[in-house]
């Protein structure tokens, strides 16, 4: 029997996670008698940890690298969207102990753009997505579900882009980063889902001047908050949305499921998290 509702984020490593700050702020704001803690769980300890959830120690939690795919096999049910994406990042314990998994990166990506670039999808003909790793999966499904007619997926390793496009299925064109110039002119949206931008890295041969002047550029890397890609886009007068909003918005559905209140992503919360970057 749970008294104080306890939730978690598990990963390996996990100590740099901002999720406890986000959920802790919402718990305090709504006066909820609950907790949210970061717990380091090594891959071989994952099944035992999930059993603790099943037994009722927690109401649910978030799952991050490297467990997002492995946790699938341990869930009793998985949301169809998470199955399409191929990863679950949020778990909810049902009253009977069954564990339901879903993916909120999808909602986080869309919620961020909806809040910071309202109407972004209207009339969008082509989106260019850079990167074909774990995060790209949810974003490709999100863009497909928004009805974007042409989604160009470019990756350093083009074979991975082609394989991901085949696996997910949709109006995808796959290629290498070097194909960017062929697709930039008609792209109303450019999304970076690679880790480039972190640790002083930048795209060397990506001419943002080839994009239409109305294009929106968004980066899911949020450390640093203004990546070189976003700085270059702003210098050209293009609209930009940074990646911190995705992190904040992806936290909303889990909190709502565990604690029964749908929290807001406010500028005060954003400022609090931004101060830790
Ligand atoms: P991942 O699965 O490891 O994928 C990494 C991607 O980056 C791959 O497409 C990889 O290309 C590409 N890449 C890495 N180094 C590169 C380089 N030097 N040049 C060109 N491409 C390179 O990682 P992930 O989980 O998708 O995460 C990617 C980034 O998104 C991370 O920085 C993560 O922190 C961030 N993220 C942010 C949020 C958010 O809420 N804002 C959510 C999830 C992830 P190859 O396939 O060729 O290796």
How would you characterize this protein structure?
It is a single chain. It contains eleven helices and twelve strands. The protein folds into two domains: 5-103 and 248-274, Leucine Dehydrogenase, chain A, domain 1 (Rossmann fold, 3-Layer(aba) Sandwich); 106-242, 3-Layer(aba) Sandwich (Rossmann fold), CATH 3.40.50. Helix 4 (105-116) crosses helix 9 (244-250). It has 277 residues and is an alpha/beta fold. It has a six-stranded mixed sheet. The protein has helices spanning 19-29, 46-54, 80-85, 105-116, 134-145, 158-168, 180-183, 228-235, 244-250, 252-259, 267-274, and strands at 5-11, 34-40, 60-63, 77-78, 90-93, 99-102, 126-130, 150-155, 172-176, 189-192, 216-219, 239-241. The structure holds NADP nicotinamide-adenine-dinucleotide phosphate. Residues 105, 108, 131-136, 155-157, 160, 193-196, 198, 220-222, 243, 246-247, 250 line the site of NADP nicotinamide-adenine-dinucleotide phosphate (NAP).
């Amino acid at each position: 029997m749970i008294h104080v509702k306890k939730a978690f984020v598990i990963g390996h490593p996990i100590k740099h996670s901002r999720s406890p700050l986000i959920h802790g702020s919402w718990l305090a704001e709504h006066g909820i008698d609950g907790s949210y803690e970061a717990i380091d769980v090594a891959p071989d300890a994952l099944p035992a940890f999930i059993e603790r959830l099943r037994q009722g120690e927690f109401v649910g939690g978030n799952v991050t690298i490297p467990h997002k795919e492995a946790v699938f096999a341990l869930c009793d049910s998985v949301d169809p969207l998470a199955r399409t994406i191929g990863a679950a990042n949020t778990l909810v314990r049902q009253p009977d102990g069954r564990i339901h998994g879903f993916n909120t990166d999808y909602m986080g990506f869309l919620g961020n753009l909806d809040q910071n670039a309202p109407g972004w999808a209207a009339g969008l003909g082509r989106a260019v997505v850079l990167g074909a790793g774990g995060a790209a999966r949810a974003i490709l499904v999100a863009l497909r579900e928004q009805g974007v007619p042409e989604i160009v997926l470019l990756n350093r390793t083009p074979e991975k882009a082609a394989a991901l496009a085949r696996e997910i299925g949709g109006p995808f064109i796959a290629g290498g980063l070097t194909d960017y110039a062929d697709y930039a002119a008609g792209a109303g949206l450019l999304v970076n889902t690679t880790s480039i931008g972190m640790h002083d890295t930048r795209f060397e041969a990506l001419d943002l001047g080839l994009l239409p002047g109305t294009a929106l550029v968004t980066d899911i890397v949020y450390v640093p908050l203004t990546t070189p890609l976003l700085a270059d886009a702003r210098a050209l007068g293009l609209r930009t949305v940074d990646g911190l909003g995705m992190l904040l918005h992806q936290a909303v559905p889990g909190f709502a499921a565990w604690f029964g209140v749908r929290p807001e992503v406010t500028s005060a919360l954003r400022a609090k998290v931004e101060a830790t970057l």
